[in-house]
Amino acid sequence: MRKKIVAGNWKMNNDLVATNTLISELIKKEKTTNAEVMIAPAFVNLLEASKLLKYSSIIVAAQNMHFAENGAYTGEISAAMLKSIGVNTVILGHSERREYFSEDDNLLKQKIDKALDEHMKIIFCFGEKWEDRSVDNHFIVVENQIKNALFHLENENWESIVLAYEPVWAIGTGQTASPEQAQEMHAFIRNLVKKHYNSTISEEVSILYGGSVKPENAKEIFGKNDVDGGLIGGAALNADNFMAIVNAF
Length: 249
Ligand code: PGA
Hints:
By secondary structure, the chain is of the alpha/beta class. The protein is about 40% helix and about 15% strand. Strand 7, helix 10 (about 215-220) and strand 8 (about 230) form a beta-alpha-beta unit. Helix 10 runs parallel beside helix 11 (about 240-245). The chain is globular and about 45 Å long. The two termini are about 15 Å apart. Bound molecules: 2-phosphoglycolic acid. 2-phosphoglycolic acid binds next to strand 8.
């Protein structure tokens, strides 16, 4: 059975004090659920988060990383650095990285390869813009993003991959894809993986939905067959809201 996952992407929010407070609240509200729970604080707070969550089942993930081993890349963070503080999961390809930091499929492919070399788990994000969907190009855009970054992988690499469909027009806008739109795309993605690999891999890979997931809509979205959880932005910054989403399973 494939894993259910709810991951909170904190983006550029929460200083050290706020990180401490939010994690303490999450620990208090933590209970056994069907879903694997992850949070992705800012780089500077990952060590603190790792320490605070040492005895918790909540997993700490990074929001990004560089593809190189080490070297002259001012301002960047390597996989080895993340691993050295107990962070073994990384979000790659978020639309904000693509949009504001010009991360393209080719760069993401290099990051994916490095993360896999380092035995890290990857949440790989992709999704169309409204201008793509409005002209019915959303399937082709998503297909290309997945193909370009992932279809060179070996079968066994897929154990380390979680997919996250995040329509850009739904991120931080309050405008969620309908559960039907999410299901339609998730089924398309699963079929794509099946065609290129096989049904064992396509049935095992978790596909998360991201884009304005809230306690009010999580149950309906997560209720769809091919939706295996969510990547949560805004609503992950409040412990009650985030745990309500986790408990939607
Ligand atoms: P949102 O962000 O929940 O605030 O829409 C989702 C994301 O960017 O992962």
